Amino acid sequence: MVVSPGIHCSTAEAYRHVEARQPEMPLKEILKRPLAEWKDTLGNDFEPSVFATYPILRDIKEKLYLRGAWYASMSGSGSSIFGLFDQPRDIGKDFPGMQIWFGKLTQ
Hints:
This protein is of the alpha+beta class. Helices cover 36% and strands 13% of the residues.
């Protein structure tokens, strides 16, 4: 599921404030782990500064987790948030006035 609240995050501004960090584990290794473990091991370095400017994005991410997402994150430098679920959820009503896309992963 992708939720877009219709705000614009400046990519240039996001890059100006990002504090890149070295991950504890290489991305290639994190992605091999079960999806349920990604929440605690995989992050987006843009989120702290972008969420400080646009707290609604943090709220969307938190709501996706509360509704059962296995993993949720900001897409790139913003302004959409995606959530990965084990099965389809009818939670579009939780994001009034926002654009929502429901999709299905294929292997």
